[in-house]
Structures
1.
Amino acid sequence: MVGKSAQAGSRVAVLMGGLSAEREVSLSSGHECAKALRVAGYDVVELDAGRDLAARLAESNPVCVFNALHGRWGEDGCVQGMLEWLAIPYTHSGVLASALAMDKSAAKAAYVAAGLPVVQSVLATRDEVASAHVLPPPYVVKPNNEGSSVGVYIVREGANAPRLAETMPQTVMVETYAPGRELTVAVLGDRALTVTDIITEGWYDYDAKYKTGGSRHEVPAAIPAEISEACLDYALRAHKALGCRGLSRTDFRWDETRGLAGLILLETNTQPGMTPTSLAPEQAAYCGISFPDLCAWIVEDASCNR
């Protein structure tokens, strides 16, 4: 495989860890990607991304950066901006797309402009959420700028307004609860791969995503062709609406009692989990792309100044 930014044998710095609530997930993704890139023939240096990241990148002098960071700072455009300033090609989405996707309210505005189906939502303060129902229950309260289901509250019908933890940001998103099955689609470049049905007991929260036995994945999802085709179409349109590049993954909820009208787009992850059993690599494997080849493709797609 010949790339435009880093051919086999080139030095690639894999960024992992970082400062967000998703640090441990990022470390797991980063170590697995580093192993895969070594299998693919790259000279890999692993960097736990701290405040001295710019200096450590200067020391290691990579041809490009594989960004395996998750959450704020590493996934929201901040590190991407630093890499642009350092003129080091990097993987996944650029500054604007990364910032848009991390800001759930801004991302929803982009989805609506692209004609994609979303649920009603509003931004509110912690005090407003605790004092009265901002939306009619059932609804979901979550940070406007975190991923991996960090800090999610589900408020059922008949429940009181929730008291949010002090660790929640001052401004949160409140959105109408979307019932149904959890579906997801990975997009690689200009190709939507397939649909995964994520099967779990209850809400697909942080534990369900990352703890052993928390969920199981059905690839491809056993759903009607109309729903599968719509998921693929919506995921690719979301990828383009946000201006993503490389790999992204878009999540859906589908209320099968309502047919196509029950399919709702939740959010797009510009740097999805990257262990061999994570959702996007599972879909790539189903499409005949091995994990080392997937990581190599992502490196070869790395760029700067866009």
2.
Amino acid sequence: MKVLLCGVPYGRDNIGDEAILSCIVKILRGLDSEIEITVSTGRPQETAELLNVKTCPLFGFHDPVWEWSDLKSQIMKVDTVIWGGATGLSDYPEYALQIFELAVELGKKTAIFCTGMNDRLNPNLYEIGAGIKRDMQKWTGYMSFGLLDPIRIREQNRRKAAHRRISEFLLRADAVVVRDEETKKESRRHRS
């Protein structure tokens, strides 16, 4: 069996992500000693040497030096795409969902494995930060004499859209193995 392990920014100096990655690789090899694992990582050489895995570029977490055709090529080489590690279901859903949608389109199996989720989506992706966009939204709220809160409305719409996509994927994934009780609760809430 050949798998692509992705959906979390591996190789970006987060010791927790790297520890989880190491555990996932060990678990997968315990299930199938012949498994071929490719990891999408920001440090291909170091990850390959440390974990004795194949590697490919880190898809989705920086200004891409890769093309979608590169991702498609990687997915075509494997049987299964695994979104594994961290609190990826709530921290990085946009990146992983794009990868998984392509995997489904290409007829590959998909799995969520040892990934966490909490009740708040990543604020860097789903909340309007400081700056001109936030100031413009505030101004619109002032102009409505406080009847509208455009920032809250826009953030709610972003979160609803993301939750809808997460829910759709949880229902379509071939396997879902979460890492803790909180994630189990949140993923069940999304699947209903």
3.
Amino acid sequence: MFAGDRVALRGRLRVDLPTEVARTTIVPALPDFMAAHPELELEVSSTDRQVDLVQEGFDCVLRLGPIRDETLIARPLGLLRMANAASPAYLARHGVPRSLEDLQRQEHRAIHFSTLLGARPYGWEYPDGDSYATLQLPGALHVNSAQIYEAAALAGLGLIQAPLLGIGRYLESGALVEILPDFRRRPLAVSLVVAHRSNLSRRVRAFMKWIEDVLMPYME
């Protein structure tokens, strides 16, 4: 029974990760995981759409936001810290907002993100008492990729609300500036999702535990 944990992990593991989380956090940490399990073959998909675990043959998926498919088994990991940001060039043109009223008075524009182009924009989310409310800001640019979302902000095209995990390095370098720190949108739920709870292989369980450890520093 105890010898089982010392047996090397073998076989193929297919996972899907959000693009920006994969690029900034998971892939840079992968060398240690791969070195610890040299006989494991890892297939990594990276997309901001919601994949079909069963049809596409994924062993494990990392998802941001609520899990709406009740047939899936989700393991909540925590909440990602968020930040509001814009480029220095954008703020030089529009001004630095100090209040929600400034967002409209200074005629600020948001970059709209949705995994489905053509969907109604989520709006600018902010805390309102014990809950959250949204303010609809204009914006001519709609994107469905986290990387393009950040790139658009860096290009000075508008305001964004994004996880610190992705834009923290830009805030540190000054390429982006945090605004309205008291009006951040709600933290983003992070979950590991599998199709079935029973008979999870050792390689899936090992990968899930490793992902949890890697992401822990970025959670609230």
